[in-house]
Specification:
about 425 residues; Rossmann fold; GMP Synthetase, Chain A, domain 3; 2 domains; 4-stranded antiparallel beta sheet; about 30% helix
Length: about 425
């Protein structure tokens, strides 16, 4: 049901669909106060679009635009036609809000069901969602998709690890949606209790919501004895279900009948060559309530060249490498936190947690990385620990081109969270 011929379209057919839907998107977007002015200012109209490449003639949209249009300046339908709102927390200023019509919610659920099916989830699975519900899109977005697919769906929500584990055991949960850092935390709780995490009935995990490396995915799979599938979504594009790994686990298919994806140089805003890392820019193609045109996600990724063995022709993006606005500049060198994680998670002595601390010394930013070391390697031999410390610093220097201060700490000594891991801390 959820593997349709549309997933095997030729590129020509997919391109023609994008052109048609992009024209309709521009007509719909122009009904909003924001895009009515923005598109007129740019001198573009639906007739401007004759090929998928013509999208480059359209203006870009930013998060600041969303904030400036808050609360409803980007809505393209009367408020009586809107049935759902999701929003950022807004704790540090004006939030961003996305509003949905009934058709928007149905289309989103269908895309999410398609995504789960691609990752091997089937109607007979029992699906537990450990995401927070409410304004966050990961709760209801995943939930509606799992239900549409036909799974018995458990809205466990976030936190309360003992309850999560009880539900998993009692209802023989076979698939979970979980943040990678929380999956590792859950596994560590079981290990501390003398329980092998691989004894859980879970066979698949859908992971996302925070950037993570292939090494972290491997740790999740090894610790819990399952297959973990990467996913990508952002609230501005609905939420989860924008791009998803299939069972090949080799990049995330962007559903190109619902979105146009571009990868641009974040400084020049020109397209990068295929396979080159740049900023992902997304356009909705089927949204009624609040269509977005060329939205700058600030997420860094690349298109993976070639066709996927699964048969789907929708292009694949690589896992998110970091964010254009999360870049650290230390001693004049551009550094992304994911580069550091990539190194640390491939060192056997390193545990599951680390923190990057940024502090000032002589009016210059400096970097210190606190790294948890597995118990069997945290020995009393000071020379052995110092040698490990030097080796980690050297491996990091090879990747990020500066030598950070490295501090080795005991396993489970750094703060742990049941939500997204806070990897970078700026010290006053």
């Amino acid at each position: 049901m959820f593997y349709s011929p549309k997933e095997g379209w030729s590129q020509d057919a997919l391109g023609a669909t994008q052109v048609s839907r992009l024209r309709e998107t521009l007509k719909q977007a122009a009904k909003s106060p924001f895009y009515h002015a923005r598109l007129a200012e740019a001198g573009v109209s639906p007739e401007t679009i004759r090929s998928p490449e013509d999208i480059r003639r359209l203006p870009l949209t930013t998060k600041d635009d969303l904030r400036s249009a808050y609360p409803m300046g980007m809505c393209s339908v009367p408020s009586r036609e809107l049935i759902r709102l999701h929003a950022s927390s807004g704790t540090t200023g004006t939030p961003t809000a996305i509003l949905y019509t009934k058709n928007d919610i149905q289309n989103w659920a269908s895309l999410m069901a398609r995504s789960l099916y691609a990752a091997g989830v089937r109607p007979e699975d029992v699906f537990q969602n450990t995401s927070g519900y409410g304004l966050f899109t990961g709760g209801l977005g995943i939930h509606y998709g799992a239900e549409m697919l036909g799974c018995l769906t458990i809205p466990a929500g976030s936190g309360n690890t003992k309850r999560q584990l009880k539900l998993i055991r009692d209802f023989q949960v076979s698939v979970v949606h979980i943040i990678p850092s929380y999956a590792l935390y859950m596994g560590s709780v079981l290990v501390q209790e003398g329980i092998d995490p691989r004894e859980l009935p879970i066979s698949r995990a859908v992971i996302g919501a925070e950037p993570h490396t292939e090494a972290v995915r491997s740790k999740v799979e090894s610790l819990l004895g399952l297959k973990a599938f990467n996913s990508y979504g952002l609230s501005e594009m609905n939420g989860p279900g924008v791009a998803f790994e299939c069972e090949e686990q080799n990049g995330m298919h962007v559903w190109e009948d619902a979105f146009v994806a571009e990868i641009l140089n974040p400084e020049t805003l020109e397209p990068v060559d295929e396979g080159e890392i740049g900023e992902l820019v997304m356009t909705t193609l089927t949204r009624e309530g609040m269509p977005l045109v060329r939205y700058r996600t600030r997420d860094l990724t690349r298109f993976i060249p070639g066709r996927c063995p699964c048969g789907r022709t929708h292009r694949r993006i690589d896992r998110i490498k970091g964010r254009a606005d999360d870049m650290l500049i230390i001693k004049g060198v551009n550094i992304y936190p994911m580069q550091i994680e990539q190194v640390l998670m491939n060192i056997r002595e390193v545990g599951q947690n680390y923190v990057i601390e940024i502090f000032q010394d002589r009016e210059m930013d400096q970097m210190r990385i606190k790294v948890e070391i597995r118990d069997e390697y945290f020995v009393e031999d000071m020379r052995a620990l110092q040698a490990l410390q030097r080796r980690i610093a050297s491996l990091l220097r090879n990747e990020i081109l500066i030598t950070p201060k490295v501090e080795l700490v005991q396993h489970n000594s750094l703060p742990q969270t049941q939500g997204k891991a806070q990897r970078v801390v700026r010290l006053d």
